[in-house]
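Journal club prep — side note

Before the paper discussion, L.F. wants everyone to see what a predicted structure for a comparable chain looks like in token form. Sequence:
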Amino acid sequence: MAIWIPWRILTWRQRGGDIAREIAIAILFGWSLIVVALTLFPLQIIFYDWHARFNLIPFASILQLMRDAPLTVAFENIVGNLVLFIPLGFLLPMLFKQLRRLGAVLWRMALVSVVIEAVQLITGVRAVDVDDVILNVAGAAIGFSVFLLLARLWGRSRRATRLLDRIGADPDREPLLLPMVPILLTTAIAVPVMVSTLVSATLTDGPNGIIADATSIFPGSSIAARADEDRFVFLILRNEDVGESGIVSYEKVLAGRFTRGFWGEPVSTEGSWYSTGVTDFNDTQDETITGYAYGSNEADATRLIVRSQAFTTEFELPDTVLFVVGFTYVPDPESFALDGFMFQFLDESGNDVTSSFVS
């Protein structure tokens, strides 16, 4: 608003204007803000999930919503995407005479919708879906139809016809490029703020980053073991005074920048035991699955074998009591089940000492 209002005042002084047209422009601007707010915010600059879900199969999401989702959820997603672009399909041909053809409106609205989806893909704010584009364009078509209907009704009145002619303009430039000045100014102001937010809300890989964050979760502890696997870091912390340990995970979201994932409750470090888990993954995509195992090794195990029907990997365990390992599972993520894995501990002589561990 701080940029838009001065820009419109400056445009009025330089080129003149019409109050009716300015009202229509203000309505278009206000609705555009609503579209941005609903589709791009809250802007998750902390990219908790780079692997955002996306669908490129037309009508797949619509059919799934109608078949599986609660009625309110289906209504919100389908009707919401339709309604979102109806005002745009109505206001644009009203403001720009060269857009008083259906095709001229629809390809521009398709372009705007694709840009929104592209931003969502980059930021991971929401799922990227071709059905959103289809519904947005359909909504714009409805808005255009409403404009044509009203234009015909207004055509019966000379006063209404003159008003419509005053509101409409025929600029030399592409209508979508006309607001580029305030958009670029807003971007120039917003980008430094976004970058600052990104830096302040993510962590580095170092003593003042993930290590400081992890030790703040378990006060009085220090790093006892670490595993780096795929985009994840697993840290085991140990508090010598109380004989407890805990796990914290971090996900790399940008080069050298991490966000905290999960952390476990402190457990005793005595005896031999192990615990397993898996990080969040997207089962609608060909996304690798990162599993982990951690625990206390007082049985002098030197190797850990992780095995399933279609997967086997082996780890050398450290000399320390506490350990953590991460493993990436690729085959058939849709049928993934952690309880289908076997964890086998071997000592230096190759003897199976798994029975010494409590899981």
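L.F.'s comment for the group: The longest helix spans residues 71-95. Keep this in mind when we get to the figures.
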